[in-house]
Model the fold of this input.
Amino acid sequence: QVQLVESGGGLVQPGGSLRLSCAASGFTFSTYPARWYRQAPGKEREWVATITASGGTTTYADSVKGRFTISRDNAKNTMYLQMNSLKPEDTAVYYCYATFWGQGTQVTVSS
Done:
C-alpha cells in the first residue's frame, strides 16, 4: 500500500541539528515533487520546503532559508530535511508530502 514514513525527529538543544527522512513506498515516488510541512501546537500547518521530482530545484520558506536543506535520493525512494541552527520556534510536527501525506515526526528544540 501507499506509505510515506517520516523518521529522525527528537529533542535537540537550540543551535543543534537534526536530519529527517521520509521513506516512500507503494507508488512511483521519483515522478513527484515533494515537500516538507510542519505544524506547531495551536498553529496551522505551514509549508517548509519543496524539491522537484528530479531534485534539481529546491525552494524554502523564508523562516528556514539558509538553515534547512531539502534533498532526495530517488534510488532509495527517500527524501531528507537537514535542519541546522535549530531554534525553539522550529518546534513542530514535521510532515512529508508527495501526493500523499506521512504521519509526521515530532521535533522539539529546547534547552
User: Anything to note?
Assistant: Residues 14 and 107 are 12 Å apart (CA to CA). The chain has a mean pLDDT of 97. DSSP finds no helices and ten strands in the chain. The first strand starts at residue 3 and ends at 7.
